Amino acid sequence: MEQLNSTVVISNISSSPGYPSPASWDFRSLAPAVVLSLSFLLGVPGNIAVIILRPNWQQMSRLSQILMLNLAISDLISLLPLPLWIYTLLCSWTLGLVLCKLLAYLAYCSLYSSQMTVTALSVQRYLKVVYLQRYFHHVGLKKLLALLWLAAMILSIHALVHQQLTPDQNWTRCRTGYSSPAQQEAVLLTQTLMGFLCCFVMAFSYIGLHRKVNQAAFFNNPQTTRLITSIIVSFNVLWMPNNITSALGVAAISLKNEGLLKFYMDSKNTAGALWRLDRVQYKKGYELTQPAVDTA
Predict the structure, then answer these.
(1) Which residues form the G-protein coupled receptors family 1 profile domain (predicted)?
(2) Angle 62-79/30-53 helices, nearest 10 degrees?
(3) Which of 167, 161, 157, 186 is nearest to 5 (CA)?
(4) What is the tens place of the pLDDT at every residue in 226-249?
């Protein structure tokens, strides 16, 4: 959601264009709009089903149930407003500055909350199976969730500060604007570090789990092994483009490379949309492998 010119911020738009006709749609945003549409169609029913049906939850610990529920709620926070984002990607932002800031803030809160929740689930499973201990159970669930959401809200504050309405040819866009390249670099660096850290911890947890209990019944089941592998691969494949794109943005700003900055701007929307596709796969894999973990 960063604007094309990272050094110029246009924070006061007195008027915005009307609804453009389909002939004037911004087809540059067609690819991310398609990905977001798929995320909405798959994610909303999937997360509602997780909350209502709670498949295999009787096999889960109380902590796992709370974290899964938190992950589903986090996803819905970002998924439900997607039709608005899709329309404004193809057309023009007509919802005002307040909603621009609020929806962007909720999207970033969902991003960080989901990252940390998935990471916590991975670490909890690793500790439970490998060390047969439940370290997280010594921490109150309410305190754990409060800490998680507090961190997500703090990391997302930049959206309330920097999100602006900016003109783009015949459209008005809800984008992040910065008064200096250093501000943009700091925000992107935070996103990059958080993204790679969560990917590393999750991969370490599941790979370590596989190595430590390789002879256990859990991994004697080929179906379970494939599910665990699919969790790791899908998480990293769908999250890595967003992490790499953010890293390229940091490099482009640091090196003042216009070509690299243009590539970052052209690809960030599509890369940023991919991570929403991962959570349904993660929940499915976690629920299906939970019984096997508990009996390992």
Answers:
(1) 46-248
(2) 140
(3) 167
(4) 655 666 666 667 777 888 888 888
Neighbours of 269 (CB within 10 A): 20
* Interacting residues of 202 by C-beta distance below 8 A, sequence separation 6+: 118, 119, 122, 232, 235
- Rounded to an integer, the average pLDDT of 182-194 is 89
Give the whole-angstrom CA distance, residue 204 versus residue 201: 5
The secondary structure of 2-40 as a DSSP string is B-S-TT-----------PPPGGG--GGGHHHHHHHHHHH
Global confidence as pTM? 0.77
- The string of DSSP letters for 47-110 reads HHHHHHH-TTGGGS-HHHHHHHHHHHHHHHHHHTTHHHHHHHHHS---SHHHHHHHHHHHHHHH
Q: Considering just the CA atoms, what is the radius of gyration of the chain in Å?
A: 20
Please list the helix, strand and coil fractions of the chain in percent, rounded to the nearest 5, in that order.
75, 5, 20
Instruction: Show the domains of the chain with their CATH numbers.
Output: 22-294 (1.20.1070.10)
DSSP code, position 275: G
Beta strands in 91-230 (DSSP E): 163-168, 171-176
pLDDT of residue 289: 52
Q: How many CA atoms lie within 13 A of 207 on its CB side?
A: 8
For 187-216, what is the mean pLDDT?
Answer: 80
Q: Tokens 């080929």 — which residue?
A: 222
Q: Per-residue pLDDT for 111 more than 60?
A: yes
Helices (H) and strands (E) in the chain, counts: 11, 2
